[in-house]
Prior knowledge:
The structure holds 2 protein chains of 2 kinds.
Chain A: H1 6-19, E1 33-44, E2 47-53, E3 65-70, E4 76-80, E5 90-96, H2 100-108, E6 114-122, E7 132-137, H3 141-150, E8 155-160, E9 179-183, H4 188-191, E10 200-204, H5 207-216, E11 221-223, E12 237-241, E13 247-250, H6 256-263, E14 281-282, E15 289-290, E16 300-303
Parallel strand pairs in A: 7-8, 7-10, 8-9, 10-11, 12-16
Antiparallel strand pairs in A: 1-2, 1-6, 2-5, 3-4, 3-6, 12-13, 14-15
Chain B: H1 29-56, H2 63-92, H3 98-111, H4 119-149, H5 159-174, H6 178-186, H7 190-218, H8 228-236, H9 243-252, H10 266-273, H11 277-281
Helix pairs in contact in B: 1-2, 1-3, 1-4, 1-7, 2-5, 2-6, 4-5, 4-6, 4-7, 5-10
Amino acid sequence: MFGLLRPVAAAHLWFSRRGVRGHRPVPAVDRDLPLTVVDRRLEAVDVVSLTLASGSDLPPWEPGCHLDVRLPSGLRRQYSLCGDPADRRTYRIAVRRVGEASAQVHSSVRIGDPITVQGPRTAFPLVGAGPHVFVAGGIGITPLLPMLRASPAGYLVYCGRSLDSMPFLDELADLRDRVRVLTGIPSAEEILSSAPAGASVYACGPPPMLDAVRAAWSGPVHFERFSPPPIVDGDPFEVQLGAGGPVVPVSGVESALTALRRVRPETVYSCGQGFCGTCRVRVLSTDDTFLPCTERATGRVVLDL
Amino acid sequence: MSEPNLVLAPRDVAFDWSAVPAHWVPGEPLVTHVMNTLHLVLPEGERWFVEVFGQALPHIRDERLRQDVIGFIGQEAVHAEAHQGAADHLAAQGMNPQPFIDQVSWLFRTLLGHRDLPAAVRHQWLLERLALIAAIEHFTAVLGRWVLEAPLESAGADPTMVDLLRWHGAEEVEHRSVAYDLYMHLDGRWSRRVRAMVVAGPVLGWLFARSARWLMANDPQRPGGPRLRDARRAARRGLLPSLPALLRATWRYLPPSYHPSADGGTEAAVAYLATSPAARAAAR
Lengths: 305, 284
């Protein structure tokens, strides 16, 4: 019965042969946005904010959006926009010093420096009429700050280790009746104690806090999902691309996928965390498969690539 | 919210099928089996999407579109495995869908698979298939929007199955522009886009009708043959999409100025994902 589709496929093949004529090359699309650092402030212990501008109107954004920032070393990181969406001339981001990339922002980005970004895009959009309850943990305040301003009846629970580690407390002064500040490590029950039933909770902060809030709240919960954790102390090994093919070393601080993409940028992958399976390849000489995004090997593994 | 800004990433979902009954919309074998078609067709179909998009990846010259395509590939791969789980559950209930799945597999892997062709023609064959995927994705987005609002709970539908369909539908709405944007970026010829829709629309309809008939015929509970009258009645109750609505959606795809972002639905999709048991349990 499916054989009826044979002539349909044949027609597509015929059109493929005919389509060669009239083919046009694909134009490159430049997504880079060259900006300049116009302000830099210390917002809290280990937190610095950068205000960026280009001299003309910037692409519009909404609360929850982030920028993809290319750092001087070439590293790329995403930072939430925490300024005012109505201000079309500047973007503001805030960075806590936690790792290699953020240390670069703290040590080597100065007022007047050029900085290239892409975006804005969002993985954390604010939707619906509310009631909205925003739960921030430390630097997780950044996307929620513009959300609180955009949601007139919204309510913010802002948690942090100590007051001096919490950025933007001064900016929240005029919203005092819509903000609760909790220090230490409050329980999810304490965090959600003033949330009205049926509220949509928007949570941003450290993973244990997100897990606790997701488990404790039965209504809608919006959160940004975790990106792959960095690899810090893996054993180095090698992958070979086919019998007799090039050998690619995999260092102790990267995945085989990262190493593969260096030599084969067209490698297909997606989640980077071992669950979607799109990067799975066959291992030569055995019937096994290998998942370059999470699996490691000892010595050398020869892949069917 | 503005539509085209959403970052796409797969969600690590899991479903427990053990308590899902054979007729998961009680007393509605036809509705059950029309939607069960998804479990028979999508695993192979979505693996084919992943394969074809993987072949398109090296040709992309737009960093943002590349990120979208990578997110799309992961979402489709997870959809395929989720529906595979539901198909395996059908088999466990005494309805072996393998003969039908084998035909679907032949359609995607052989008929629409890789062909040994001269390089220039092989590239056009890739574009031809990207145009087909863009047309199919138009329907998955239409059905995604539909399933987010369909009154399935009030018909007593099984909550696990409803969550699978709505999580999947929401992600289809989330990524509804990607296949279209990819086709427009790599080719964009209107004639090819329209031609692909003229083929994809009727073939999808035929596939659903055949699969529903096959499932009804092979259902050990012998619910009888599928009748058009039952389908119309279910559509009136909102339990199946209506044919006029699908035809209108097909028509909407045709103008040169069409873009999927205009169809909306992102808010509803994002709102559902915040309540979906499967999506909420997925920390990554």
